Amino acid sequence: MVMIGESSLRRSARKVAVRHPLEEAAGADDDSGVFGSSDLDSGADDDSGHVAAQLYCICRKPDDGELMVQCDACSQWFHAACMRLSEKTVTDDWKCPTCVSSRSERPPQSASTRNVDPPATGPAREEAGHAGIPAKDRDSCRTALCKVISQDLASAVEDAVLHTVAGEARLAEASKLYKAKMREILFNLKSNTKLRQSLTEGVLSPASLAAKDVSLLADPELIASRNEERRQSLTSRLKVAEEEEDELQASVRPQTLPAAQADIVLAGNPAVELLSAPSDHAVKESDVARPNVPEVSDEMDAIEIDETPVMEPPETLSYQESLTAETSQYDWTGTLAVTATDPGFRLRGNITEPGTANDRKRLSKLPSALYVHGRINPSAVHKFIMQVHAVAVSVPEAERHRHKRIVLVEYFLPPDSPADEANCALFVKQYRDRARIPVLDFVDQGILLYFGASTVVGAALLLRSSTLPYGLPPLDRITTPCFRPALELGLAEHAAEVASVVEDRSAPTFENTVVALERAGQPLAQCRAVFNSLLASNTNDELDALDTEMAPKFAAHTDSIFLNKALYNRVRDASPPPEDDIESQRLRERYLTMFERRGAALSEPAINEMRHINEHLSKLAAQFRQAVLKATNDCAVVVDDVALLDGLSPGDIASAAAAASQRGLPAGRYALTLVNTTTQPALASLKNREVRRKLFEASRARCSDGACDTRPIIVEMAQLRARMAQLLSYPNYASYVIADETASSVNDVNAMLRRLIGPAHANAERERADLERCAGDELGGDRLQPWDWAFYANRLQKQLFDFSDDDVRPYFEVNRVLKDGVLFAANRFYGITFKQRNDLPTYHKDVMVFELFNEDGSPLGMLLADYFARSNKQGGGWMDSYIEQSKLLGHPHAIVLNNLNVPVPAEGEPALMIFDEVTTAFHEMGHALHGLFSNVKYPLFSGTSVPRDYVEYPSQLNEMWATDPAVLSNYARHHKTGDPMPQALLSKVISARRFNQGFATTEYLAAAILDQAWHQISPTNVPDSANVAEFERNALQAAGISDFFVPRYRSPYFSHIWSSATGYAAGYYAYIWSEVLARDTQSWIGEQGGLRRTNGDVLRGKVLSKGFACDPLSAFKDLKGGPPDIAPLLDYRGLRDASVAV
């Protein structure tokens, strides 16, 4: 084996290449002769200074870092996964499927496998390389093409087709796509003289011909002939399809059909204010024009209609923006209608005359009509069809055997409007290219769709606006099967909306481009908000599998927008909004920044590589989330003797018994479950040192081996992020991230961390010495270990302040903390009031719902509180949004969700919290208020949509009320007697605020250092998975943190930075950066009189309501009257004295 790289070691006839593509482009030849000058030419730099990504395999994608194999016959490289091979199954004489099928006789060569980058190929055209197309098929197609155009031109066209189809399918489909494309090109070149002339004269390039749907360039007479054929065959197609449906229904239909039930009845559309008012005359059967479709069977006619709708119709089917938009190439004026008037339910196209008001009035009188009339563009029509689909999929699964699922959506044009007719034809073509719903046929005046029996119940619940208060999603009715069709339809609709912006032929303006993008994709955003929330709060295996499947689709969808050069150019060239409209000016600037940071300004090869990186990162993040959740559940420590749990409260022991029972363990077993941090809450109470050690080691070692080992995942994610930064001309990923934060530069972040590590670590070492003295002889001559810290800190706290967590826990009952603490503080400071809504639906019985009001009684929004831990819920605390405030979208109020992970008590026992959990409840309420107080126009700027190192500012500030005497005395009451916490104990809780802050600050800073270490390195410096622990040790030692202090999160379970494609990656420092702002504001509030309404109004008006509509630091300076001061933070954490020497 020849190792190609820094050294060469010959071992056998097989070789493994480990060179990076940049090294290959540099021309560092190896002794096999694979690299040479031709390879250097093919890898030349593009105009942005980046090396073009080499494409390989039948998938025509870059090297992804995984195993690749080289064909023994054609010497082409393939991804092993695409070939369904592994390092164990590949043979020394392996040949690719194309070479096998072509039966080529070649001198035998050795097969090659490798784990990193294959050698680049030269520019010479390879006969076998190929996208997996059999040579006989290629010869046949090329020969036929040579009869129409020259041989050289035919070869160029064929090459372009190969590159086009290679990226669209795997091996099983590549040949089929190739032949279909070549037949289409051949047919049109033969029949269309102008097309052939454009190609031979160079007006149309082979690449453009292969990339376009050449039916657009077909001869007009041929198009007319095909349309006539479709018109003539429509009736027969419908008849055949319905006969097949009847056969299917007969095979699954129950023996008796219940009477008085309609299959589907579409309720009347209430949003028809754009049309003329309905007339009073009764609608007769003769008044309704019928399309040329078969009548329903007599059996179906006999079913009695129940006029009660199965589900309400979408609230809005007429889209104001589509009726008033400027005419584009694909606009036309006309009417679209779908009606349900037949018993047994058949969606029927209803042709109307748009120029006749009476016809529109008749439509509005039909109780089951869906229609849109006016100036129509593809986006509006696509939305309309999505609404039809949303109604169709609402049919209960048990009822589907009774439904005909053929839908004819017809449109009618005014007479003598040839321009509109041409635009309609263009739209039909466009819709065919993008349709996600199975299409039976297209005619010049209709689209025939088919909704099969596999459509899933409830997709409409996710895509349409909810009728519940504030738009709360019907969480009790949304089930796992709802998500797939809803997400796919949402993606399709958003893509159509974006396409309508790109294809708009009018001059780009702020309104028709930037604002149009802001409006687009709302059904998808609504669906994803629920989907992502349930993934974190109440997941299951099906949701996790769907998350894994959809993650790369979401990434590709985002890339299709922000890596779209045409769209980027349109945004860049759009006329600006008025100068006095500051928020709109900022929106335009922000969109340009987002496009450029995503890579829209890069060369095409670099953009393709960015797409690959983004897709792969999304897949890896989903794998990481699921592995961490499984490991956290699987690594619970099980004990079989209750005596080993000495020190835990009876409630904690009962919870451990319940956890063991849920895992199927026999009675007498107890399971100590893990939370997401390294240090576990039970360590503060467990007296048995060996049990403490096992619990700590289980926490620290999770995700580092076995089936849930995340180390290979995080290593690959670090490499991909580093490569992304290189493509965008940043030295590392941290520099890329922080450039868009309030910190502005990596140097600023590193300087702040260094300034804090010294005093924090010094304090922690003093605290360690204090704890060892407290432990005395109990350590048996051993030094204090990490698993001992929480136990002896709890004891020392009791000695110094005469209380421990166990002493105060009875005073922190969950409901009282929430209502008399968290919400009480919001009332006193901001004047808001709340009302619990037990009548509204939730996804779990533990979730509480509160309606919130401003001081004047006007509605503010809605808060959901999910405070209890579950095995299918991620750890920690966080805030989600179901609805974000936006004036543009007509969302005046937000709906937010707060999550905690308080252990579920045994049946009949109270739910009690430790003080850290109380503080977390106040913290998450700070996030909630940030979202609820939002008062912006554009959704991009709403609420918490601010930089990472600013978003924690409001939440950390809100923590101050947890220890405010007036607030603490209101919620700290004994769960049995209701008596307030004794004043002496209350004073001790407040005075103990700085206790153990050296350790707490150090374990946080250690995690922040790891985050920066992973993201301030180049791709070549990322360690392999076996050396992750060594990488961590080196990073912490370099920062001055000893091995004793374990980070709050170790890399393998550091969800903040690995659980999403971006998340808090290179941004975990944000908590301490934001806390500088929070403690400085806390000092300002104290100077202004503390818990006063006037202070709350100022904070709400100048900071919390602004979102990202203004510069965050400018908002802070406007509140404080100057830049942030770090001194209050040093005082708060007890670091000022220790920081003098820094």
TrEMBL record:
Cofactor comment: Binds 1 zinc ion.
Domain TFIIS central, chain residue ranges per copy: 137-245
Listed Polar residues bias regions: 99-115
EC number: 3.4.24.70
Keywords associated with the record: Hydrolase, Metal-binding, Metalloprotease, Mitochondrion, Protease, Zinc, Zinc-finger
UniProt GO MF annotations: carboxypeptidase activity; metalloendopeptidase activity; zinc ion binding
SUPFAM superfamilies: Elongation factor TFIIS domain 2, FYVE/PHD zinc finger, Metalloproteases ('zincins'), catalytic domain
Residue ranges of the region described as Disordered: 22-46, 98-135, 228-255
Pfam families recorded: Peptidase_M3 (PF01432), PHD (PF00628), SPOC (PF07744), TFIIS_M (PF07500)
Catalytic activity: Hydrolysis of oligopeptides, with broad specificity. Gly or Ala commonly occur as P1 or P1' residues, but more distant residues are also important, as is shown by the fact that Z-Gly-Pro-Gly-|-Gly-Pro-Ala is cleaved, but not Z-(Gly)(5)
Biased amino acid composition, Basic and acidic residues: 124-135
Cofactor section: Zn(2+)
UniProt key word Transferase: no
Similarity comment: Belongs to the peptidase M3 family.
Name listed for the protein in its UniProt record: oligopeptidase A
Species of origin: Plasmodiophora brassicae
Highest classification ranks of the organism: Eukaryota, Sar, Rhizaria, Endomyxa, Phytomyxea
